[in-house]
Amino acid sequence: MIRAILIDDEQLALTSLERKIHKFQGIQCIASYTDPNQALVDLSSLDADVAFVDIEMYDISGIELAEKLLAVKPKLHIVFVTAHAEYAVEAFELNSIDYLLKPVTSKRLEKTMSRLLPAAGPVVENHMSSSREQTLRVLVFHDFQAWYGDHLLSFKTAKVKELFAYFVMHRNTSIHRDVLIEALFG
Questions:
Q1: 93 in the Ramachandran plot: left (φ > 0), alpha (ψ -120 to 50) or beta?
Q2: pLDDT category, 16, cuts 50, 70, 90?
Q3: Cα–chain-centroid distance for residue 49?
Q4: Which of 53, 72, 107, 140 is spaced 20 to 30 Å from 63 by Cα?
Q5: Is the CATH number of domain 2-119 3.20.20.70?
Q6: What residue segments make up the domains of the chain, in order of their start?
């Protein structure tokens, strides 16, 4: 799974891009920022594979920000998202994966995803051994129970148990936090 961060000083543009990315399998938006400086501060603690970066922002140019992001995480892939075509040469000098012009269409984003998936490297799947101690069993009839090997898992609160059950029922799909909030607290 490719983990993405989005950086744009316009909230509407961030929301729109996040919705479009959410439709693709194999990529997950882990954070979005309207403040590029905060993104830079948080980057070292995030396990991000790609950053979608706007070029024209109030405090800093996206080109400068990308250079700083790459100084912190040299293997981070950069996708520039902008309304201005004139920065394309500078963007590709930074070895960016792609250069998207706003408004970003789903069809154009699909091309970006086809570039990102091979660039992220092979996806390593976590295969558990067949021994009973390393298997997770989930029982959903009567009472929801989860077993790890021979041990029944206990949940700190009922909400944590509901969240785990929700993830089990929607495994292998990305879920927007607003959907989770509505499902659990709506």
A1: alpha
A2: very high
A3: 8
A4: 107
A5: no
A6: 2-119, 132-185
Supply 70's token pair.
């790459």
* Digit-coded pLDDT (tens) for 71-97: 999 999 999 999 888 888 888 888 889
Query: Which residues neighbour 138 within 8 Å (Cβ) at sequence distance 6 or greater?
Result: 144, 145, 146, 147, 168
Kindly compute the dihedral angle of the four CA atoms of residues 90, 93, 97, 100, in this order, to the nearest 10 degrees. 10
What angle separates helix 177-185 from helix 158-169, to the nearest 10 degrees? Answer: 130
119: tokens are: 């660039």
Find, among 20, 18, 13, the residue nearest to 54 by Cα.
13
CB of 2 closer than 8 Å to CB of 75: no
Contact 79, 52 (CB under 8 A): yes
Question: How many angstroms separate the CA atoms of 52 and 100, rounded?
Answer: 9
Task: Please state the separation of Cα 96 from the chain's center in Å.
Answer: 18
